[in-house]
Amino acid sequence: MGEAELVEAARAGDERAFGELFERYRRELRVHCYRMLGSFEDAEDHTQDTFLRAWRRLETFQGRSTFRAWLYRIATNTCLDTLDKRPREPIPEAHSLPADPTAAPLPAVAVRWVGPFPDRLLEPPAPGDGGPDAVAVSRETIELAFIVAVQHLPPRQRAVLILRDVLGWRAKEVAALLEDSVPATNSALQRARATLQQHLPRRRAEWAPARRPNEEERTVVRRYMAALARADDAAIGAMLREDARCSHQPGAGGHMDSTPVWYEGRDMLVAAWAPALRGPDAVEFRFRETYANGHPAIATYMRPAGSDSAFEAFALSALRIVDGRIAELTGFTGEVFPAFELPATLAPDSA
Length: 351
Known about the structure:
- This protein has 351 residues and is of the alpha+beta class.
- It has twelve helices and seven strands.
- The chain has helices at 3-11, 15-37, 40-56, 67-85, 134-139, 144-151, 155-166, 171-178, 182-199, 215-229, 233-238, 266-277, and strands spanning 240-248, 261-264, 283-292, 295-304, 311-322, 325-333, 345-346.
- Strands 1, 2, 3, 4, 5, 6 and 7 form a seven-stranded mixed beta sheet that branches.
- The longest helix is centred in the N-terminal third of the chain and has 23 residues, at 15-37.
- It is globular.
């Protein structure tokens, strides 16, 4: 059934028709909400809120725009309503370590509500899918560096930049969505672009769509996991760039009020791993490969060394690999595992 027929059936009260129509756009709307909010869980909730609001307000769709554009209007305003009610601020730049102005920007975890996005939800529902969301999703920038940078924008500037520069909407369309003038929308876009450049890493002054990790990167990931599993400091260090950085969110129990942690430099990273690799606090690891935000990622499970207990979910780390070595590891707590369809525990005899 075509879109016009589905719209007509839905307007006549056919919930099934409306559900089929909405599902055509759920994937891209979820990514749009994620970019607006920075949290996968919030994006899921707001995508569902968009579904409910659209169903309740279906009579307001007059066909002056596409149904897709109408859904984006609802999704954007749903996110803006939340951001207005619950404003959130990243860690101030003054807290950056080190304070050297030439140093790397704050890591992703410094924006404490940002979480990883499972790559499996970026894939088309079927091979060769050419549905209406295919171009939008492929063009959308999903890398953590961009997601973090855009969180520094005021909400309305964020919406303007995403709609204009990521989705390619015209100024007139964005102004209509936000019920603003075209000059005001263009001004907001210029301010947003300037702020964005201040928060993007220098290597990413020009951002581009995410891609699937290649075989070389997958090989690096597997060698790194093997080095950790056998507690091989030399091999771990060989996998890291000299200026590598590792960061992670605090554990459960109020991470929004806690300070994330990060380490700079290969030697410091190797030293930070040492207590877990040997000594009284040593642990045993098991790993699962996955993908997050267009990067290879590692799901880490741990148990005390010598124990016969199950391996418990510990952290998910997204890796940025440059020239065959790990440049950055961004870690999130095991609380994100369900979104990646990862189990909470692994059996004691798991390989």
